[in-house]
Amino acid sequence: MDLILQQMVNAVSLGGIYALLALGLAVVFSIVRLINFAHGEVMTVAGYGIWIALASAWPVAAAVALGLAVAILAAVSMERVAFRAMRGADVTTLLITSFAVSEIIKVLFQNGISARPVPVVLPAWMSGTLDLGPVRIGVIALISILTVALSLVLLSVFLRRTVMGLAMRAAAEDFPVVRLMGLRANHVIALAFAVSGILAGVAAVLWVAQRGSVDPLMGAAPVLKAFIATVLGGLGSLTGAVIGGFVVGAVEVCLQGFLPQSLLPYREAISLALIIAVLVWRPDGLWPAEQTSRS
Amino acid sequence: MLAVRDLKVRYGAVEAVRGLDLSLARGQLLALLGANGAGKTSTLAAIAGLVPAAGRIEIAGETAGGLPPETLARRGVALVPEGRRLFAGLTVAENLTLGGAVHTPPAERRRRVAAMEERFPVLAERRHQKAGLLSGGEQQMLALARALMAGPRLLLLDEPSLGLAPQMVERVFDIVAGLKAEGLTILLVEQNVPMSLAIADQAVVLANGRAALSGPAAEVAASDHVRRAYLAA
Questions:
Q1: Three-state SS across A66-135?
Q2: Are B163 and B185 in contact (CB under 8 A)?
Q3: By CB count within 10 A, which of A63, A162, B88, B204 is most buried?
Q4: Does A169 touch chain B (CB under 8 A)?
């Protein structure tokens, strides 16, 4: 029982990061139909921002703020420099553009800083653990869970209580009609990238805190998992992205925790096979995006 | 209020509108009639900035051709699109809020939402319901109210009675007539020719992207062509 509780904590902690990243992918996809594989590099940029700040002896809070700020800047710059010119292009062109942006940023970090991981030194208190009843939980895991919960609540409030949040939800359903309401396409899209940047920034903070290092490929694996999560949840569905993120995290943690040693090398294959099985059962994902009624 | 000269809309090799002239004075209602594929919706889409078009479009004396839909909306053009195209996953109140999102301070927006709920009481009852769950008639009320939230100078209506029950069709035409009586300038695209001509000041009958007939609504209604083709007389 204790082991199950422990694994649940781990699943929520990891799944939360995937959920944030998947949500960032979904926010952009739902509006511009772009699966931004350079989203992982936004996370990497934020990671290096945190590394530079901590290496310069900045306080942790300031380093986190810098990480978030550079993530927003990176995401919005990507849209302005690379994706705006491609607006309206077919899916293949958009995908190739996002891969190109992703590769360029990776190479810049590999040549400009180092291809190897650089250590991020966190305060000692963050590596401690807390005993909550039968469950021993790491401070970083606890921070991760609370941060993910707070981020999702804040995003939900933004999407439901502000005009621009409503505009983003509406744009995900029918972007041309949002423009008919007088809302500028460039603003709505830039805001979507900014929101995805914040989410990638938060994910980067948690990822770096859990792993203690940054490298040019840091965002590649998590964004792939996030992409799987968005497909599993229902491409373009924000709720689906969050559900998908937690499911992918839970599957990964459960397989890691409960598979026999001899099957551990097949963990990823089993995980993907399970997800494919779910998609065969529900091709539109677990929580498909709502479509505008055309009655 | 609206002057359209030699409007042409093309989708690849297909020419949907082939040199159309329209003129609509402030406070008047122009009915744009015609069979399916005559170019009515393409004309509205071009005026609203949704599709590229050749020719000259002027709204309130200012050139409007080639402007994006958001700029035209900010200049007072509101389109109720064919099929309503509400934001199905948003509530009635959220749809209304978005309709008045631009240049409207929050207090004024709330006042306008309250005014719309007074004008369309069913929307007050359904305030927190998702738009996709409303009936066809309720959706049309919401689509109209959403467009009115911006306080438009020119209202473009694309087939507002399409797919509605006869009673609801009458209600929709009553509302449109009421808006005209309040002084709103309206360009109405419809397939319900008798009811459209009954409330219109002017009418244009489109055929193959061109104006086959135009003039005061009463004269158009009396023409042999319209009586034979649309009024079953």
A1: HHHHHHHHHHHHHHHHHHHHHCCCCHHHHHHHHHHHHHHHHHHHHHHCCCCCEECCCCHHHHCEEEECCE
A2: no
A3: B204
A4: yes
**Distance between CA atoms of residues B186 and B202, nearest Å:** 11
Q: Average pLDDT of B64-83?
A: 93
Could you give the CA distance from residue A65 to residue A261 in angstroms, rounded to a whole number?
41
**DSSP 3-state assignment of A144?**
helix
Domains of chain B, by residue range, sit at 2-229
CATH number of B2-229: 3.40.50.300
Are B200 and B188 in contact, with CB atoms under 8 Å apart?
Answer: yes
DSSP type of residue A234: -
Q: Residues of A with CB below 8 A from B85's CB? A: 174, 177, 292, 294
**Contact criterion met (CB < 8 Å) for B98 and A290:** no
**pLDDT tens sequence across B145-158:** 999 999 999 999 99
- Judging contacts by C-beta atoms under 8 Å, the chain A residues touching residue B79 are 180
> Is B163 close to A180, i.e. CB distance below 8 A?
no
Q: Residue A149: what pLDDT?
A: 92
- Residue pairs spanning A and B at CB distance below 8 A: 87
CB within 8 A of B204, min separation 6: which ones? B20, B22, B30, B31, B32, B33, B211, B213, B214, B220
